[in-house]
TrEMBL record, chain A:
Residue ranges, annotated region (Disordered): 1-26
Keyword Cell membrane: yes
Family that this chain belongs to: Belongs to the binding-protein-dependent transport system permease family.
CDD domains: TM_PBP2
Transmembrane portions of the chain: 63-81, 128-154, 166-183, 242-260, 296-317
Keyword Aminoacyl-tRNA synthetase: no
Limits of the ABC transmembrane type-1 domain: 124-314
Name of this chain's protein: Peptide ABC transporter permease
UniProtKB/TrEMBL annotation, chain C:
PROSITE patterns hit by this protein: ABC_TM1
UniProt protein name: ABC transporter permease
Gene Ontology cellular component annotations, sorted alphabetically: plasma membrane
Compartment(s): Cell membrane
SUPFAM superfamilies, A to Z: MetI-like
Biological classification of the source: Bacteria, Bacillati, Actinomycetota, Actinomycetes, Catenulisporales
PANTHER family in UniProt: DIPEPTIDE TRANSPORT SYSTEM PERMEASE PROTEIN DPPB-RELATED, DIPEPTIDE-TRANSPORT INTEGRAL MEMBRANE PROTEIN ABC TRANSPORTER DPPB-RELATED
Membrane topology: Multi-pass membrane protein
Pfam families associated with the record: BPD_transp_1, BPD_transp_1_N
GO BP of this protein: transmembrane transport
Keyword Coiled coil attributed: no
Domain ABC transmembrane type-1: residue ranges: 94-297
Length: 326, 540, 307
């Protein structure tokens, strides 16, 4: 059915799937180190082959370079927002509410008279952290559990899948009001933890479906006949063929998680004021779309660029790992 | 999204509306059979008069019920409606005579018994009526509604039917303005049908007002039609009203623009800027009996000191009320200068500027005052509000920004949203607040008493900050016993001055009612409760 | 196959009990709902106690749960705070939401898969880039804004549709809300299909099919698409529950009185009966949808068998 068994098997452990979607800063290291990782699934006979191939591909791929640069830039302003702004995101003058662009304030002002440019830059830290870390957590937890359920089938599948069902049933609003309202910490961690807790079932289902398909491939049967261990089968033969849908869903989910943070904050259980994030600014500007579209445009634009960068990165990584495209 | 676009929307909306109205002529020649559609919200509680404590249910009750008194839609003055006379010698024992000739829309006569039965039902603990406390002044209330344990009586001993159309009311204490409270919906009469087949009545209420309920689909629509045999002189001037439930007032507004709806009585804040373009002069913005304040937790020692009083005064002076009402609310709220409401009128006890300089925006003096008091308790304040209903987030943020700018500290004031209204109320009743929190008051009846006693009297039901002041309590007691209305108002104002001198709560602004309508309608008015006066609307 | 289905149906029982218990506990953890019923004033203690008794809140949680489950099996879902039977609420909300969800799913299948196939076959071409940009818009602009703008444009400016949905909510009025509701999921379906198609179009069996001289259309639909659908089907199956219970924003904008709205209100008012009742039905929907998806795997990929 597939010709992948002829290729040196890609050794993508569940964890390195997350790695592939990491900030991109350490892309090279992550990708090169993984084969030698503790999972023991590193290729013995022809070391580095798939990974070095992939890395060579990536380096030459302009899509990868551009998206990596964008992500690097986002990380940079998340860490040092004051490098490109001089004002404070909390300095607001109501008499300037909803005013458009003017000297010193290129993006104009929002409904509270805060500078949109400054807030967009300062919002990057929260939004990128929530988006990337929550996606990472969801992808790791979801794909590990989903892969195990899909691979072993039978009782473990039943148990894991039914647990997934129960988690699916929790409405986000209810979960947020119950689980987050008891937490007083004003960091992004509770929000990230919450998104991971309610987000993993989605990836888990996708990963399970992909693994169920992949495990029926001829080369998997062949490897099994040759006495390959379960972990070797799962990590070296099945995972590389099942990773594509997980990457796709995770990169899009990244954007929706950034928006979810805003929903939670609006319910009064996410980040407490005076936190600044794109999601919060997008939500508060939304009702005023008829009068002050600029206040919505800039944080939404920043969100769009971030999502775009990660979608392209995911695409490039997936392509680089797919031997058929070579 | 520029102005031209708005104008085009408006023109389009008008064209559509004209088309549906067949380009009918001028406004005043109303068609007394035409039905209008209006926005509505799903009432929280079953539509029983003594169980309805919010505006949406109140709208319907105002259309299908008439009580002993009715508040004049324009002046708010309590006028006799079904009451022929309410007599008293001592402000404690009242003899009430009901007018002859009134019936419920099912033909049953409205008698003294209709009132007494309704009030006993409302007060009785076993009926779980949310407004039971309105009957709390009547003698025998504590037997039908004890603080704890089972009730020992079914009816209040203070109510006695003395004739077909007369009954007497005995109160536990002197309460001179008691007759003026009788316009509140909880005091409406109820027909026998209410008691005989309660479930059927709740599904399709029967009352004695100018409209009758034609059909009621829970959660989506109520069709009210003009009651042709209505005996009162405030007959409906239109054929009826279709109340449509909207879960978001913005959708209702859009439907109005598209010509699918005739009347919106709550224009969304985000659209206030566009109203002029969208509707022209088919828009109304009038004062309503609602005041918004910031309450303080006086049970917290940090807020119950002499210094804390200065901090409260300082905070009040740090809030730029005019800027906020102009920008955030687009002038649909008015900066507050006392603790009542302009709808009371000068005679009713409203006193413009009673608050004095403490309600004026003076950032420098605010900072000085707070510094003198040793700074904010704990170095910062949080303003707590509930995030699920109303759009409180924006003004809380604006108030905080204003305070921060005045104190020149970006983190002096932060907003603190609470997820649900129930949780917010629980934090209040469990005395868990640590800083100022949102407090709003919508009057039950247009009396100065209603703006002061429930909110600031020791242990009153809406005294959320648990403020307690002997001087204030004494003045209120004295005012309630005063038989002369003008004197009573005067004493109430003295009590209000005590509230001011202690800054028991920071008054923020008076809320207006707003309404927008299609050009089929004319003579649209809002009463002091911000409810449209449906029966006077003319449809062409 | 038959035994597998029976086994799955039996597994629904523990999930059903677990989920209802979990939701029941969660609503209870939120605290005392009575305080929210008296408006901006403190409920008087006697009335509060009476109300607690009426809603059964004065008993320990485990007893409340047992009573609730007991009632459930006799078809009694309890009463909402406004005195309406929960079954009555469900009877009005679910039909509307089911219609809305059907339309949204239809959009996902038709538009999502079609766009996915086109972009997957034409990777890197302008059409692919165009769809990618649309995807970005859908993800980064809130549903609230897209819904509102479409409503203003189509409903007010051009007058093509009614801006709000009437209480009967017929199919034709739900087309725009369905599209708005489906928009984010459309992005997922499109990208999933695109990736699968792109991955599979170079596989042996497609090459073989082309080499056999099969018409392009047949190759795409019978060979390529069928083998690419598993992740898409998985996603849509999981999405049904979300669409039904989570359409809060869409239902608000278009004034649809459906499940999302009732559930949201129930949660905010901490009404255990409403929330648990609605979630219970949603859990059943999830379970059935997942079973159908698992059975579809075997249809799409004959190598997958259930015993």
């Amino acid at each position: 059915m597939s010709d992948r068994h002829e290729e040196p098997e890609a050794a993508i452990a569940g964890t390195s799937m997350g790695g592939a979607m990491d900030l991109g800063v350490d892309e090279a290291e992550t990708l090169e180190k993984t084969p030698a990782g503790p999972d023991g699934a590193g290729p013995e006979d022809r070391p580095r082959s798939l990974w070095s191939d992939a890395w060579r591909d990536l380096r030459r791929n302009p899509v990868f370079i551009v998206s990596a640069l964008v992500i690097l830039f986002l990380v940079f302003i998340s860490l040092w927002p004051s490098a490109i702004t001089s004002g404070s995101p909390l300095k607001c003058d109501l008499s300037k509410a909803q005013e458009g662009s003017q000297p010193g304030h290129p993006f104009g002002f929002d409904g509270q008279g805060c500078d949109v440019y400054t807030r967009t830059v300062y919002g990057a830290r929260t939004s990128v952290a929530v988006g990337v870390l929550a996606t990472l957590g969801v992808a790791v937890l979801g794909s590990v559990l989903g892969a195990l359920a899909g691979f072993f089938g039978g009782l473990s599948d039943s148990v894991l899948s039914r647990i997934t069902d129960v988690f699916f049933a929790i409405p986000v609003v209810l979960g947020g009001l119950v689980l987050l309202s008891v937490i007083t910490s004003n960091t992004v961690w509770p929000v990230i933890g919450f998104i991971v807790l309610l987000g993993w079932p989605q990836i888990s289902r996708i990963a399970r479906g992909a693994v169920i398909t992949a495990k029926h491939n001829d080369y998997v049967q062949a490897a099994r006949a040759l006495g390959a261990s379960n972990s070797r089968l799962l990590l070296r033969h099945i995972a590389p063929n099942a990773v594509a849908p997980v990457i796709v869903v995770a990169t899009i989910a990244l954007g929706t998680y950034i928006a979810l943070e805003a929903t939670l904050s609006y319910l009064g259980v996410g980040l407490k004021p005076p936190s600044v994030s794109w999601g919060i600014d997008i939500s508060s500007a939304s009702p005023y779309i008829r009068n002050a579209p600029h206040a919505l445009l800039w944080p939404s634009g920043a969100l769009a660029i971030t999502v775009l960068a990660f979608i392209m990165l995911g695409d490039a990584v997936r392509d680089a790992l797919d031997p058929k495209l070579r | 999204m520029r102005t031209t676009t708005h104008a085009r929307w408006a023109v389009c909306a008008m064209a559509l509306a004209l088309a549906t109205a067949g380009c009918g002529g001028g406004g005043d020649s109303g068609d007394s059979e035409a039905v209008l559609s209006a926005s509505w919200g799903d009432p929280q509680n079953p539509l029983e008069p003594s169980n309805t404590n919010e505006v949406q249910g109140g709208k319907v009750l105002d259309m299908i019920f008439r009580g002993l008194k009715r508040y004049d839609p324009e002046t708010g003055e309590a006028k006799d409606m079904l009451a022929e006379s309410i007599e008293t010698d001592d402000s404690q024992n009242f003899t009430i005579t009901v007018k002859d000739g009134w019936t419920f829309s099912n033909g049953e006569k409205v008698t003294a018994q209709s009132f007494v039965d309704a009030w006993n039902y409302g007060a009785s603990l076993r009926n779980n009526q949310r407004n039971a406390y309105f009957f709390g002044y009547i003698e025998g209330y504590d037997q039908v509604h004890p603080e704890e344990g089972e009730q020992t009586a079914d009816t209040m001993s203070g109510l006695k039917v003395t004739g077909d159309r007369t009954f007497t009311v005995k109160l536990t204490q002197k309460f001179s303005t008691f007759p003026d409270t009788l316009g509140y919906a909880a005091f409406a009469p109820l027909p026998r049908a209410f008691f005989d087949d309660h479930d059927a009545w709740v599904k399709k209420p029967v009352g004695n007002g100018p409209y009758l309920v034609d059909s009621y689909t829970r959660g989506s629509q109520m069709a009210l039609r003009k009651w042709d045999d209505y005996p009162g002189d405030d007959k409906a001037e239109n054929g009826g009203v279709d109340l449509k439930v909207y879960t978001d007032n913005n959708t209702a507004y859009t439907d109005l623009l598209a010509g699918n709806l005739d009347l919106v009585d709550d224009v969304p804040a985000a659209q206030l800027k566009n109203v002029k373009n969208d509707l022209g002069d088919r828009y109304l913005n009038t004062p309503a009996g609602i005041i918004q304040t910031l309450a303080f937790p006086f049970y917290d020692p940090a807020w119950n000191t002499e210094d804390a009083k200065k901090v409260r005064q300082g905070l009040s002076m740090a809030i730029d009320r005019k800027q906020i009402t102009d920008t955030i609310f687009q002038k649909t709220r008015t900066p507050a200068t006392d603790w009542t409401s302009p709808v009371l009128g000068e005679d009713g006890g409203f006193q413009d500027g009673l608050c004095g300089e403490f309600c004026e925006f003076k950032p420098d003096e605010a900072k000085k005052l707070i510094d003198e008091a040793g700074g904010l308790p704990g170095g910062k304040v949080t303003i707590t509000f509930n995030a699920d209903t109303g759009s409180h987030r924006e003004w809380v943020n604006a108030v905080c920004n204003s305070i921060n700018n005045a104190l020149d500290n970006e983190r002096a004031c932060t907003a603190n949203p609470v997820g649900t209204f129930a949780d917010f109320r629980n934090q209040i009743t469990d005395r868990k607040m640590t800083g100022p929190f949102r407090a709003g008051w919508q009057m039950d009846y247009p009396l100065i008493q209603n703006f002061l006693q429930p909110l600031y009297y020791t242990n009153a039901s809406s005294n959320d900050g648990k403020w307690s002041n002997q001087e204030f309590d004494d003045l209120v007691n004295r005012a309630n016993q005063e038989t002369d209305t003008a004197k009573a108002v005067d004493v109430f104002q003295q009590a209000e001055e005590v509230v001011r001198d202690n800054m028991a709560a920071i008054p923020l602004w008076y809320q207006n009612g707003s309404a927008g309508w299609s050009d089929r309608l004319s003579n649209v008015k809002l009463n002091p409760f911000s409810v449209p006066v449906y029966n006077e609307i003319k449809v062409s | 196959m038959g035994r597998y289905v029976v086994r799955r149906l039996l597994q629904m029982i523990p999930v059903f009990i677990g989920a209802t218990l979990l939701i029941f506990l969660m609503v209870n953890v939120m605290g005392d709902p009575i305080a929210g019923l008296c408006g901006e004033r403190e409920c008087d203690p006697a009335t509060a106690a009476r109300l607690e008794q009426e809603f059964g809140l004065d008993k320990p949680v485990w007893q409340q749960y047992l009573t609730y489950m007991g009632n459930l099996f006799t078809g009694d879902f309890g009463t909402a705070f406004n005195g309406q039977e929960v079954t009555e609420l469900m009877a009005t909300a679910f039909p509307v939401t089911i219609r809305l969800t059907l339309i949204a799913i239809l959009f996902e299948i038709v538009i999502g898969v079609a766009l996915g196939v086109v972009t997957g076959l034409r990777r890197g071409r302008p059409v692919d880039t165009g769809v990618l940009l649309l995807t970005l818009v859908v993800i980064s602009v809130p549903t609230f804004v897209t819904g509102l703008l479409l409503q203003l444009l189509l409903g007010v400016k051009w007058g093509w549709i009614r801006p709000s949905v009437s209480s009967e909510a017929p199919f034709d009025e739900l087309i725009l809300p369905g599209l708005v509701l489906a928009s984010v999921s459309l992005a997922y379906v499109t990208r999933l299909t695109r990736t699968s198609i792109a991955e599979n179009r170079r596989s042996d069996y497609v090459r073989t099919a082309i080499a056999k001289g099969l018409p392009r259309r047949r190759v795409v639909v019978r060979h390529l698409l069928r083998n690419s659908l598993i992740p898409v089907v998985t996603f849509i199956g999981a999405d049904i529950g979300f669409l039904m219970g989570g359409a809060i924003v869409t239902e608000r904008i278009f004034n649809i009185h459906g499940v999302g709205y009732q559930l949201y209100q129930g949660i905010l008012r901490q009404n255990t009966q409403t929330v648990v009742g609605f979630v219970t039905v949603l859990v059943l929907v999830f379970l059935v949808a997942n079973l159908v998806v698992d059975l579809l795997y075997a249809v799409l990929d004959p190598r997958i068998r259930y015993v």
